[in-house]
């Protein structure tokens, strides 16, 4: 390698390293910035409904957008290594169940909420991964994660945590398998498959790292540029619910004796938007007020596994019948988990 070429490569690495450092610094200081903006700059009162809603919005919008940008950029680079045909050969046919299992397990160790997992879902579809496999990932990524497992382990021991892990994976696998068997690709928006066709042509030719980084930037421009207004709108709805829905109201209707408490908890949880870390204080409060464990788990899984912002974002890539089917299958699985825990615990 010539001296100018080596210098250019070192400079490029330094620039990308600095960009990642800036991203990390911004991401790790969002909570403090949101608190300062809400209560010092705007002057809202701590503990007020409006203050909680505004703080949630100011924190979640940049957090989700930062995650979206990073994940879409990474997916754009990964896509440059694989053609759709190669990916189909790896995960289609007899290997589809294996693909569901691998996608669900990958989702467990992926620290993203449901909205942030959507770009990876788009990346899977555009590289030819079967639709059912992509849904297995989309479900397990927010629903089953290390934060929820640690919480359950600390409160109830390893058996409850293990049952939760198994139940969440079962929901992700079963829902993905059912959706995959129904052959619903016609309900995916056409622009997603147009991207897949374009990606195939690009990936067939050898690419250097400059071209792969350019592919990542293109993915950010096309995908984030398309969905960001829906992200902001969805989080605004979630912020209003987060700030104004009282915990006492939910605790009163989550008792073990009422058979309808589990489906009602899921119905209430779906419009709310949070990740596992954000819902933990609510879960602890509900359990402390006597709510049934299965009902609270169903509520938690519906909040982090099914959300209104997620539906709004998914509407850009999926047609309404498939979104409704996806929510219905997952909600049914979550309710089964809730009834199981209420019966066993």
Ordered list of secondary-structure elements with their pairings:
Layout (H helix, E strand, L loop, with lengths): L2 H26 L1 H12 L7 H31 L4 H8 L4 H13 L5 H13 L4 H13 L2 H11 L1 H24 L8 H15 L4 H36 L2 H6 L8 H9 L6 H13 L4 H13 L2 H7 L5 H25 L1
Helix pairs in contact: 2-3, 3-6, 3-11, 5-7, 5-9, 6-7, 7-9, 7-15, 8-9, 9-17, 11-16, 13-15, 14-15, 15-17
Give the strand tally. 0
What characteristic shape results from the CA principal axes? globular
Q: What's the number of domains?
A: 1
Q: Give a short account of the largest sheet.
A: none
Q: In percent, how helical is the residue content? A: over 70%
Rg, rounded, reads: 21 Å
Give a verbal description of the structure.
- With 345 residues, the protein is an all-alpha fold.
- It has one domain (44-344).
- It has 17 helices and no strands.
- It starts with a helix and ends with a helix.
Quick gist of this model?
The chain has helices at about 5-30, 30-40, 50-80, 85-90, 95-110, 115-125, 130-145, 145-155, 160-180, 190-205, 210-245, 245-250, 260-270, 275-290, 295-305, 310-315, 320-345. The protein is mainly alpha-helical and about 350 residues long.
């Amino acid at each position: 390698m010539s001296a100018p070429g080596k210098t250019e490569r070192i400079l490029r690495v330094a620039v990308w390293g600095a960009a990642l450092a800036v991203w990390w610094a911004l991401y790790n200081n969002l909570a403090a910035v949101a608190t300062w903006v809400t209560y010092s700059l705007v002057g809202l009162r701590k503990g007020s409904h409006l203050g909680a809603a505004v703080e949630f919005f100011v924190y979640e919008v940049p957090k989700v957008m930062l995650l979206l940008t990073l994940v879409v950029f990474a997916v754009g680079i990964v896509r440059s290594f694989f053609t759709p045909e190669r990916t189909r050969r790896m995960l289609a046919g007899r290997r589809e169940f294996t693909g569901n299992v691998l996608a669900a397990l990958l989702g467990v160790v992926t620290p993203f909420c449901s909205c942030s997992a959507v770009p990876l879902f788009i990346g899977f579809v555009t590289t030819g991964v079967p639709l059912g496999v992509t849904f297995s990932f989309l479900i397990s990524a927010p629903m089953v994660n290390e934060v929820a497992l640690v919480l359950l382990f600390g409160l109830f021991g390893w058996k409850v945590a293990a049952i939760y892990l198994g139940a969440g994976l079962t929901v992700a696998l079963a829902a993905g398998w059912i959706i995959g068997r129904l052959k619903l690709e016609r309900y995916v928006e056409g622009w997603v498959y147009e991207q897949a066709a374009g990606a195939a042509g690009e990936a067939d030719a050898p690419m250097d790292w400059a071209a792969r980084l350019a592919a990542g930037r293109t993915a950010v421009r096309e995908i984030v540029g398309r969905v960001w207004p829906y992200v902001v709108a969805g989080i605004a709805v979630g912020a209003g619910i987060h700030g104004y829905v009282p915990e006492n109201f939910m605790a009163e209707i989550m008792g073990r004796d009422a058979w309808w408490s589990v489906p009602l908890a899921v119905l209430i949880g779906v419009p709310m938007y949070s990740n596992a870390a954000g819902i933990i204080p609510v879960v602890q409060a509900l359990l402390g007020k006597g709510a049934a464990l299965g009902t609270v788990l169903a509520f938690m899984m519906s909040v982090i596994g099914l959300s209104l912002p997620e539906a709004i974002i998914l509407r850009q890539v999926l047609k309404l019948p498939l979104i409704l089917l996806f929510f219905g299958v997952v909600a049914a699985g979550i309710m089964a988990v809730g009834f199981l825990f209420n019966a066993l615990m």
